[in-house]
Specification:
Blueprint: H1 6-20, E1 22-23, E2 39-44, E3 50-56, E4 64-68, E5 72-73, H2 79-89, E6 92-96, H3 110-128, E7 135-140, H4 142-153, E8 158-162, H5 168-175, H6 191-194, E9 202-207, H7 215-224, E10 229-234, H8 242-274
Helix pairs in contact: 2-8, 3-4
Length: about 280
């Protein structure tokens, strides 16, 4: 059977990263274009790759949302969403580009995104004194996989996953069921396995009309995670319009879930003291 698919294997391997990652190097707009002050920053991953990101402060906010974006475009494609998060969730926002995206150097890869995520957490701690219990890890689509990886090692205030998938091989099976692509992929992003080891309070959001990541995959990721956790269905939303279709209720769910996570952390602290 392997011999029969050898020509396909030889084609698929060099193309794998191009199938998964769709970076854009051009920055089309910045938060300043929607009236937000921000710091345009550069920081370096442990392997020496230089990365670019934006820190958008909210006055007197004690919490910071670290945003791991999806596989396409760059941070400039999220500017309108940043504005809404700033206004409605009232939180500091730090969004950055993985290597190969936007103004970040380097070449895309799964291990590279993990190095980049760790570098972003370290940068926030060193440059803005953001401690783990002030940190909300927010990952959308492919970024959910990076957020889960970070949450296994850093117990932040909360973990928020939007439109998460099982794994890259399972996505290949869902998208191209008639081709034996999944066994040939070296990129894993195994959310279903890793989420079992997350300790932070978890919110999973998923549009019930998601045309890219099946709704049931987000639900299964949620079910695999330990408590405490919450699931929020974004009624009528596809893959890329969640915050638009979800409207005020979507942002309320984010804000209330962060407050809920803080109350969980406080209760856990009180329990430890009373033991």
């Amino acid at each position: 059977m392997l011999i029969l698919f050898m020509p396909f294997f030889l084609w698929a391997c060099p193309m794998e990263e191009r199938l998964i990652f769709h970076p854009d190097k051009t920055i089309y707009q910045t938060p300043r274009d929607v009236g937000l002050n921000f710091d345009d920053v550069h920081f370096t991953a442990r392997d020496g790759v230089r990365l670019n990101g934006w820190f958008v402060p909210y006055p007197n906010a004690q919490r910071t949302l670290l945003w791991f974006h999806g596989n396409a475009g760059n941070i400039s494609h999220r500017v309108q969403n940043i504005r809404l998060l700033h206004d409605k969730v009232k939180i500091n926002v730090f969004i950055f580009d993985y290597r190969g995206y936007g103004r970040s150097d380097g070449e895309t890869s799964e291990p590279g995104t993990y190095l980049d995520g760790r570098a972003a957490i370290d940068f926030l701690r060193q440059s803005y004194n953001v401690q783990p219990k002030q940190l909300v890890l927010f990952g959308r689509s492919l970024g959910a996989a990076v957020a889960v990886e970070m949450a296994m090692n850093v117990e932040g205030l909360a973990l928020i996953l939007e439109s998460p998938f099982f794994s890259v091989p399972e996505m290949a099976r869902a998208v191209i069921p008639l081709l034996p692509l999944a066994p040939l992929l070296s990129t894993r992003y195994d959310n279903l396995e890793k989420v079992r080891r997350v300790k932070s309070p978890l919110l999973v959001l998923h549009g019930d009309r998601d045309e890219v990541v099946p709704f049931n995959q987000g639900r299964k990721v949620f079910e695999a995670a330990p408590e405490p956790k919450k699931f929020y269905t974004i009624i009528g939303a596809g893959h890329n319009d969640t915050y638009l279709v979800g409207g005020d209720a979507y942002f309320t769910a984010l804000r209330e879930s962060i407050d809920w996570a803080a109350s969980v952390a406080k209760s856990a602290g009180i329990s430890k003291i009373n033991r």
